[in-house]
Amino acid sequence: MSSNLKFMKPSQIKQSNFAKAQEVMGTTSSAVWTQHKTNEMLVEGYEGNSWVYACIHRKMQAAGSVPLVLQEYNEEDGFKDFKNDHPLKKLMNSCPGLSGKELVQMIVGQMDIQGQFFAKITYGGRGGLTPLEIYPMPIGSCSAVEIDGEAKQFKYMKRDGRTETLEAKEVLHIKDPHPDTIFRGMAPLKAGGKAVDVDNEAANWQKISMQNRGIPDGVFTMTGDIGPDEWEEASRQVSENYTGIENSRKPWVVANAKFEQMSQSMADLDFMQGRKMTREEICAVLDVPPPLVGILDKANYSNIETARKIFWIDSMIPKLSLIADQITSKFVKPNEKLRMVFDTSKVDALQESLTEKLTSAKDLFGMGVPLTVINKKLEMNLGIEEIQGLNVGYLPGALMPTTFASTPGASKDKNQSTDEVGEDSSSRMSDEDFDRISSVMDKVITNQMTREAAIKLLNIAIPYLDVSKIEELIPVVEVSNNAD
User: Fold this and answer.
1) 354: number of CA atoms within 13 Å, CB side?
2) Can you give the pTM of this predicted structure?
3) pLDDT of residue 447 exceeding 80
4) How far apart are CA 248 and CA 220, in angstroms?
5) Measured in Å, how far apart are the chain's first and last C-alpha atoms?
6) What is the C-alpha to C-alpha distance for residues 389 and 29, in angstroms, rounded to an integer?
7) What is the DSSP string of 55-122?
8) What are the Cα distances from residue 395, in Å, to 7, 42, 108, 438, 446?
């Protein structure tokens, strides 16, 4: 345990070299950053920094919650789930010791740490052309080899130190594109490495400060000339008796020495604010809104819900789409109309609330939009596509088809003849006739009148209305064909 109490050594052991003095005091003229090698980003970042771990772990969990499915394209329906057997359906669940969800989590985690993911592919089946297993390679163990402008080989260093050369077909390489090269990915932690270093150093400084009572207390000035032995003994006694948590705020008793209190700087007082800035920078680099990793300084229910949507829309969906596209490119033949895709339709953060959907559905229905169109547009999944009549739009008053709607300006004069109303009077129904139809339909709906009776009544009451239109209308809104 080191002391934060500084003593001036006696003249005979002073350091004459200023650079050496800087080293002893822990100061330097330039910042020393972690070399952004893959293994160091793993140790210093994911394993050594709580905010990096929280962000990447959150993304890994989110990715693992979304199923990866195989879809087939047809001109009538577009892309739909592929119902038949296919090697790709089994491949993502064929990693020894890993489930399909865990494999997806590893892909996302490695892409954030090293910017890319490598997996060894085992082939078999007829002609040895069917991919049977994929096995993830450890972080930092594999790299692409450029040959004639292409990544035709990969170098894989095993855990025992041996190196193996793999052909391109034997390796699944998924990467975040680097703007300068096609042979490796761009790691977010490389861009955010300085923020991670600052946060780690700040945490270390705080820990050591707490061990040494939390603040630099001051200077002991020894009276008279002392030699190296006396200086070492004084340092030992102070370190043993006055530093460490167990000696916090313990009264100090010293002999032949004067203690001078040292003041705190404003930089010390602003220490925690600096750590807040670095943690938010880490979250920004890793595309995770701060509230989702427990940073709730300015959070409330509303903006947390918004943060979840931002997380999925701006971070996870592009990432998952990139992964699915690269898996498709690797395993789907050009003549196959197939694709791998992450099905995010069940992600809660991406779903409108039931209240929002019902409000939107009501507004659309009131504008005469058919229920089948509303169901598809709002993705309500009501399963009503096959129900006859729901592909017709209705006006809300008495659930009348829009084709029977009253036309503005239609005559309400009972004595006015059909010819006076217009040549196409059937398309310009009067308000009275509209009310008659509404009344009859209400009785049919409440089982106060049978369908047959309703048709006869409307045919008599509105002779210009074609019987076929009445018959088309009745079954659509009919609840029961029999009166009570």
Assistant:
1) 1
2) 0.62
3) no
4) 18
5) 92
6) 80
7) HHHHHHHHHHTS-EEEEEEETTTEEEE--S--HHHHHTT-STT--HHHHHHHHHHHHHHHSEEEEEEE
8) 90, 62, 50, 11, 19
Q: Cα–Cα distance between 69 and 92 in angstroms, integer?
A: 10
Q: Is 54 exposed, middle or buried (0-12, 13-18, 19+ CB in 10 A)?
A: buried
Partners of 394 in the β-ladder: 401
* Two structure tokens written together for 329: 């490119």
- Tell me the three state secondary structure of residue 178: strand
In contact, 297 and 307? CB cutoff 8 Å? no
> Quick one: 55 exposed, middle or buried, by C-beta within 10 A (0-12, 13-18, 19+)?
buried
Which of 119-123, 225-229, 309-313 has the weakest average pLDDT? 225-229
On average, the pLDDT of the chain sits at 76
- Give pLDDT tens digits for 308-340: 999 999 999 999 999 999 999 999 988 888 999
Q: How far apart are CA 367 and CA 204, in angstroms?
A: 64
Does the pLDDT of residue 249 top 90, yes or no?
no
* CA proximity to 92, closest of 369, 366, 415, 340: 340
Q: What SS3 class is residue 149?
A: coil
Give the mean pLDDT of 245-255. 60
3-state secondary structure of 168: helix
For 382, phi then psi, to 5°, come to -85, -15
Tell me if residue 19 falls in helix, strand or coil. helix
Residue 22 sits at the vertex; the CA angle it makes with 18 and 26, to the nearest 5 degrees, is 170
- Residue 317: what pLDDT? 94
How far does CA 396 lie from the centroid of its chain?
40
d(CA 299, CA 294): 10
CA gyration radius for the chain? 38
Phi, psi dihedrals of residue 180, rounded to the nearest 5°: -110, -15
φ/ψ (deg, to 5) at 220: -90, 125
pLDDT score at 206: 74
Q: Which residue type sits at 244?
A: G
Tokens matching residue 50: 């709580």
Picking from 137, 40, 132, the residue whose alpha carbon sits closest to that of residue 331 is 132
Distance CA 223, CA 229 (A): 15
Indicate the helix (H) or strand (E) that contains 469.
Answer: helix 467-477
SS3 content of the chain, % helix, strand, coil (to 5): 45, 15, 35
Question: Which tokens belong to 21?
Answer: 């003095």
